[in-house]
Design a protein that fits this description.
- This protein is α/β, with parallel strands linked by helices and 155 residues long.
- Helix content is 39%, strand content 21%.
- The chain is built from 6 helices and 9 strands; from the N terminus they run E-H-E-E-E-H-E-H-E-H-E-H-E-E-H.
- It has a 5-stranded mixed β-sheet, sandwiched between helices. Strands 1-4 form a two-stranded antiparallel ribbon. The protein has a two-stranded antiparallel sheet with strand order 2-3.
- It is rod-shaped, with a radius of gyration of 24 Å.
- The two termini are 33 Å apart.
Length: 155
């Protein structure tokens, strides 16, 4: 059962009480099996405008190898991030890196991680947050720490 105090006001509902000439506002009661869940999901979607925060996002990160020779390192990065409890994909397509980045941005990934031969040698990744303009370099351990701190802070 769900009590709804908003709709009687919205629809200007009232009823006559036992006292002559006095009108009161009713409280609607209705059954909502999934209504509460659906309303909360709609509120979150509207609030975040479809750009889910990291702790809620089904697309937290994607690893983009610059070339096929960086694919093994990209998969190792994916495995480490996944083992830390995050959702992460690898783009194994043969598209150029600019198209991969653009596709990941359109898919609303929170983080785009770009790896190549240089990153494989240094153990780093280049990352770009959803609202960032440029790629930045960071070690994989520091990236995991940053992701964990954002989830703990509900960002």
């Amino acid at each position: 059962m769900q009590l709804d105090f908003d709709r009687p006001v919205r629809f200007d509902l009232s009823y006559a009480t036992e006292k002559a000439g006095k009108l009161d506002r009713p409280v609607l009661m209705h059954r909502a099996v999934l209504g509460s869940f659906e309303k909360m999901f709609a509120i979150l979607t509207e609030h975040y405008r479809g750009k889910w925060p990291l702790w809620l996002s089904p697309r937290q990160a994607i690893v983009l190898p610059v070339s096929p020779c960086a694919l093994d390192y990209a998969e190792m990065v994916r495995d480490r991030i996944h083992a830390a409890g995050f959702f992460v994909d690898v783009d194994t397509s043969d598209r150029v890196i600019h198209k991969k980045v653009r596709q990941a941005e359109l898919a609303q990934y929170n983080y785009v991680l770009v790896v190549g031969a240089k990153q494989a040698d240094t153990g780093e990744v280049r990352y770009k947050g959803r609202d960032d303009a440029k790629l930045q370099s960071i070690s994989l351990d520091d990236l995991l720490g940053m992701l964990h701190s954002q989830v703990e802070a509900f960002k």
